[in-house]
């Protein structure tokens, strides 16, 4: 078994990169690295974070070999892990994904509804190209992908690379929820043994066992329904995220069976959310004015001062920890539990085998060994099947260049429903995505 690993971080200029770099430093005794490479197609953006990384590593990881590059051969050769968090089109396109549907009377959101559809149609091609390029240089490396919309990216990659055994799509929202439950209950979330099912950004915790096997879900559900719910890092969250977490209490009052993923608010309460979202100032604006600005300002500050001592915003969080701990579990065959995306194949007994579900899995050197959850009740089955049909039609629309399938996808989405509205949104999105999407006919 190898003792030191090489990692390339794709999307080196991501706002999440500094937090991930800090997680690599914090966990370096658990996942020792020989070499870290940052790769991005945007040289200027990556340079700011890359220079910050040099300062950080000089203080916390001096033995690490580190470079940042825009050259694929340099980036992808001789790698053990590829961590991937790219955003095709950047925040400028995210803003359009959010504002165009809102201007036409539908939810505009990064990964849900029409916004998520538009983003998928940009992400799929770049992610396929990435996997092909990585495989040219590092045929056995593990690709751990965060790139959104992860549900649709996962289905598209599964269709294009059906024999890939070392490609895993992940999301940190479930672990972020577990950390939030931990704060609320005054318990260490690392001790939780969760039972979870659904699609990415579309799932539920059915049970939350503690180390003694006691299910904490009932007490958690009544506490949240009565007192509300906040993220673990509430003090650092923007207003929109606090509102998102508070919607969990509404969902639990209406549907008390299971603890819902926060993203379900857009599908369960599309009219209410539409009335609350500002079509002129969306989450993309909040991020560009907030996290993006703070991260890049603080990275420049650290470089100017030659130390990371005075920078605080680039902290460790669920995002960085999860990806590093997942790689650790693969590297050292730890069989730790994570919530990840895998083909269903009977895990949810009354869903089709090829649905990309999100469930708890043990992660070993062979990858995920997922846990089945049996049959799910009709309400959840109905929601998931409708959402998966939307996701699958989106993937097929991309591969086939089919306008009809794109229209079917948007019509099936619970945030749209009306086919005429779907057509208006689709046409407006096509007009703004000519540089990114395949041509639809
Ligand atoms: N799955 C999850 O739970 C999760 C959590 C957080 C973020 N994300 C995703 O991570 C990604 C990054 O998010 P962000 O908000 O930091 O965005 P960002 O725009 O700050 O960073 C993305 C970076 O990717 C680069 N990039 C774009 N296309 C590329 C390509 N083809 N190859 C290499 N690099 C490319 C950009 O230049 C940019 O520097 C997004 O896809 C986001 O949705 C996912
Ligand atoms: O709107 P953004 O860009 O702030 O976030 C979008 C992402 O939101 C989720 O990620 C959480 C993450 O789970 C948590 O660890 C913490 O760091 O906050 C993030 C949100 O700020 C979601 O899971 C991702 O898929 C989204 O891209
Ligand atoms: Mn996610």
From TrEMBL:
Cofactor(s) the protein needs: NAD(+)
Record's keyword terms, sorted: Cobalt, Glycosidase, Hydrolase, Iron, Manganese, Metal-binding, NAD, Nickel
Listed GO biological process terms: carbohydrate metabolic process
TM region positions: none
InterPro entries noted in UniProt: GlycHydrolase_4_CS, Glyco_hydro_4, Glyco_hydro_4_C, Lactate_DH/Glyco_Ohase_4_C, NAD(P)-bd_dom_sf
GO molecular function: hydrolase activity, hydrolyzing O-glycosyl compounds; metal ion binding; oxidoreductase activity, acting on the CH-OH group of donors, NAD or NADP as acceptor
Binding site for substrate: 94, 148, 283
Tagged with keyword Iron: yes
SUPFAM superfamilies: LDH C-terminal domain-like (SSF56327), NAD(P)-binding Rossmann-fold domains (SSF51735)
Annotated site, Increases basicity of active site Tyr, chain positions: 110
Annotated Mn(2+) binding sites: 171, 201
Glycosyl hydrolase family 4 C-terminal domain segment(s): 196-415
Parts forming coiled coils: none
Cofactor binding, note field: Binds 1 NAD(+) per subunit.
Active-site residues, record numbering mapped to chain: 172, 263
Pfam family, one: Glyco_hydro_4C
Family affiliation: Belongs to the glycosyl hydrolase 4 family.
Record's protein name: Maltose-6'-phosphate glucosidase
């Amino acid at each position: 078994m190898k003792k030191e690993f090489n990692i390339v971080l794709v999307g080196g200029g991501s706002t999440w990169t500094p937090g991930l770099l800090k997680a690599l430093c914090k966990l370096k005794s658990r996942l020792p690295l020989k070499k870290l490479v940052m790769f991005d197609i945007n040289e200027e953006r990556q340079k700011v974070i890359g220079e910050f990384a040099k300062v950080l590593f000089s203080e916390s990881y001096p033995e690490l070999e580190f470079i940042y590059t825009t050259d694929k051969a340099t980036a992808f050769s001789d790698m053990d892990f590829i961590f991937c968090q790219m955003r095709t089109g950047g925040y400028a396109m995210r803003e359009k994904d959010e504002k165009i549907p809102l201007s036409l009377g539908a939810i505009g959101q990064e990964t849900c509804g029409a916004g998520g559809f538009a983003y998928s149609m940009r992400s799929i091609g770049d992610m396929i190209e990435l996997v092909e390029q990585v495989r040219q240089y590092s045929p056995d490396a593990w690709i751990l992908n965060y790139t959104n919309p992860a549900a649709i990216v996962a289905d598209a990659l599964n269709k294009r690379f059906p024999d890939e055994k070392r490609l895993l799509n992940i999301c940190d929202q479930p672990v972020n929820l577990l950390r939030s439950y931990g704060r609320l209950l005054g318990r260490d979330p690392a001790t939780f043994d969760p039972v979870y099912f659904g699609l990415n950004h579309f799932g539920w915790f059915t049970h939350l066992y503690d180390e003694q096997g006691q299910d904490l879900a009932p007490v958690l559900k009544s506490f949240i329904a009565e007192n509300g719910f906040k993220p673990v890092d509430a003090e650092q969250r923007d207003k929109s995220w606090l509102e998102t977490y508070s919607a969990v209490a509404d969902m639990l009052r209406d549907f008390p069976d299971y603890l819902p993923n926060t993203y379900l608010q857009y599908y369960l309460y599309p009219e209410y959310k539409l009335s609350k979202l500002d079509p002129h100032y969306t989450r993309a604006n909040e991020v560009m004015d907030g996290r993006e600005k703070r991260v890049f300002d603080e990275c420049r500050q650290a470089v100017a001062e030659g130390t990371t001592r005075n920078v605080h915003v680039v902290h460790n969080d669920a995002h960085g920890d999860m990806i590093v701990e997942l790689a650790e579990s693969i590297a050292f065959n730890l069989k730790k539990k994570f919530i990840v995306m895998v083909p269903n194949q009977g895990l949810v007994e009354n869903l089709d085998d090829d649905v990309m579900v999100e469930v708890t899995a043990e992660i070993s050197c062979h990858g995920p060994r997922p846990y089945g959850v049996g049959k799910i009740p009709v309400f959840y089955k109905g929601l998931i099947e409708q959402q998966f049909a939307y996701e699958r039609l989106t993937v097929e629309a991309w591969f086939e260049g089919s306008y009809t399938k794109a229209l079917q996808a948007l019509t099936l989405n619970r945030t749209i429903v009306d086919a005429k509205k779907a057509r208006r949104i689709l046409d407006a999105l096509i007009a703004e995505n000519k540089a990114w999407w395949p041509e639809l006919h």
